[in-house]
Amino acid sequence: VGIGTTTPQAAVDVAGSIVLSDGNAFAINKYWSSGWKYKANGWGGHMQYFGTGGFGLFVNPQNSSGTGAAVTDIQALMVTPTGNVGIGITTPGQLLSVYGSITNGFMQGIYNTGGSTTSDGLAISAGSNSTAGAVMVYLIRPDGTAIGSITQNSATTVAYNTTSDRRIKENIADSASGLDLLTKIKVRDYNYIADPDKQTQQGFIAQELYDIYPQAVTVGGEDPKTHPWQVDYGKLTPLLVKSVQDLQSENDQLKARADKAEADIRAKDAAIAQLKAESANLKAALCAKFSDLPICASNLAE
């Protein structure tokens, strides 16, 4: 059937626009009869115009119950009159809002399989050209609790933040882990098997570090290609700071001991000098009265 054309190229070929009024839809393998019904077995879907509510795209799971079976709509896409696009949400509040509930695996993926040195991933343009403050990436738990962010902290730099607010912490105490623990961590030289250049790297072995400082390690799975053990080097910062503090404390103690030893030496030198002066005065007094004493002769010889 051709509408607006004398040479239709499909079962229905429309040359021109199809106008849908508010509430009307363009459906595939489904019809409306006090609710959407499947026309036949198989997949279905429809596009619907909601007037001031926007435009929606709905998909339906495969039907195997025959004609007239009730349809379960899955909203795949919503475009609002202001241009906001929602996936999995009917009222997107941003230019692109994506909602879902995935219990096993990633909800979204960005894959560039070009395999070259210029096969880049994700670019984010946001913030100010001159000042800090903008949030580039915001990390939130499903319950709405913020757990981290990437923020602009100057005109040319970003900060990688993890939540560290006193108000959400308890049992706060000075750490006992420091230099003694740090010295147990093995620093290794190695290269990655997949690196054709076999470039030597310096760092840690995740499994070794886990035995000493597990909070810096994400445990992997069976396949090191898809689920490798990983190390968050930033998590070692508190241990490094505590170790420096331990070294400073030891240095302060050694310096105090050295200062005391130096003061003791100066005091002994002063006492010796005083004894020498007193001995010289006594010798001078004796020799003034008894000039023939041997000590006086040695004094004259000197």
Write the layout of secondary structure elements.
Elements (H helix, E strand, L loop, with lengths): L1 E2 L9 E2 L10 E4 L1 E3 L3 E3 L3 E8 L5 E9 L10 E6 L5 E3 L8 E3 L36 E6 L5 E7 L5 E5 L16 H4 L5 E3 L10 E3 L2 H7 L4 E2 L11 E2 L5 H53 L4 H8 L1
Parallel strand pairs: 1-2, 9-10
Antiparallel strand pairs: 3-6, 4-5, 6-7, 7-8, 8-9, 11-12, 12-13, 14-15, 16-17
Care to count the β-strands?
17
Q: Which consecutive residue ranges, at least 5 long each, have pLDDT under 50?
A: none
Question: Helix count, per DSSP?
Answer: 4
Biggest sheet statistics: 6 strands, mixed
**β-sheet strand percentage:** 15-25%
Please give the alpha-carbon distance between the first and last residues: 136 Å
Question: How are the strands of the largest sheet arranged?
Answer: 3-6-7-8-9-10
What is the string of helix and strand elements?
Answer: EEEEEEEEEEEEEHEEHEEHH
- Overall morphology: rod-shaped
Mean pLDDT, all residues: 91
The Cα radius of gyration reads 41 Å
- Structural class label: alpha+beta
Estimate the helix proportion, in percent.
Answer: 10-25%
